[in-house]
UniProtKB/TrEMBL annotation:
Annotated source species: Pterulicium gracile
Keyword terms, alphabetized: Hydrolase
GO molecular function per UniProt: hydrolase activity
Stored InterPro entries: Isochorismatase-like_dom, Isochorismatase-like_hydrls, Isochorismatase-like_sf
Any Pfam family: Isochorismatase
Hydrolase among keywords: yes
Residues annotated as domain Isochorismatase-like: 1-175
Protein name: Isochorismatase hydrolase
UniProt similarity note: Belongs to the isochorismatase family.
Length: 204
């Protein structure tokens, strides 16, 4: 849910921002219930660039860009590189992150592939293992790419995975996430929504 995908200065139609509200709605209750909040985001390092698969250049080849690491502008920095402004969270969520950071409930985790759990070892894998986390709830932008990629890899590693269907949207803002939700619920885990999650947290 980074600026590159949601900020109106970088997207002519940042419709993916429609999932910002549902995410904001559940954060206070999740924090109060002791749920760890993980902001999993692109944060590519210079040493990662030679190791990225060629498909990443194609996927992020648009509007004059030539793949991850290419310069967007002086203001926004290099595409999805760690520490760049375009890789920061969309402003309303950046505020949420800092709020949770002060509370000790929120954590930033970088990734350099669509999936945060690809291969033998990733920053996300280390984080989850170090805290003995066994269940994951998914929300955010990337219902056609990043979210199902991490969801399936998490399932394959033995995590219990839950998709929040009203807090997940495709990168281009299209609401049709039915195939993703179907596969999540039928094969790889469970599907619910933010209303039912909040009800469950109130009862626990």
């Amino acid at each position: 849910m980074q600026n590159f995908f949601l900020h109106p200065s970088l997207r002519t139609k940042p419709l993916g921002s429609e999932c910002v509200g549902p995410v904001q709605k559940i954060l206070p209750a999740c924090r109060s219930s002791g749920i760890t909040i993980i902001w999993l985001n692109w944060g590519v390092l210079n040493q990662d660039l030679p190791l990225l698969p060629p498909s990443h250049t194609r996927v992020f080849h648009e509007d004059g860009l030539s793949g991850i690491g290419s310069k967007i502008s002086t203001r926004w920095g290099r595409l999805l590189m760690h520490g760049s402004r375009n890789a920061a969270l969309y402003p309303p969520l950046q505020e949420e992150f800092h709020k949770g950071l002060e509370m000790g409930t929120d954590h930033w985790v970088n990734k350099n592939r669509m999936s945060g759990l690809w291969g033998r070892s990733t920053e996300l894998a280390h984080f989850l293992e170090s805290r003995d986390i066994s269940a994951l709830i998914f929300a955010g932008v990337g219902a056609d790419q990043s979210i199902p990629g991490t969801f399936v890899d998490a399932y394959s590693r033995g995590y219990d995975c839950v998709m929040l269907k009203d807090a997940v949207i495709r990168n281009n803002g299209e609401p049709n996430t039915q195939p993703v939700n179907y596969n999540a619920g039928m094969s790889y885990g469970f599907v619910t929504d933010t209303t039912r999650l909040l009800e469950s947290l109130r009862q626990s």
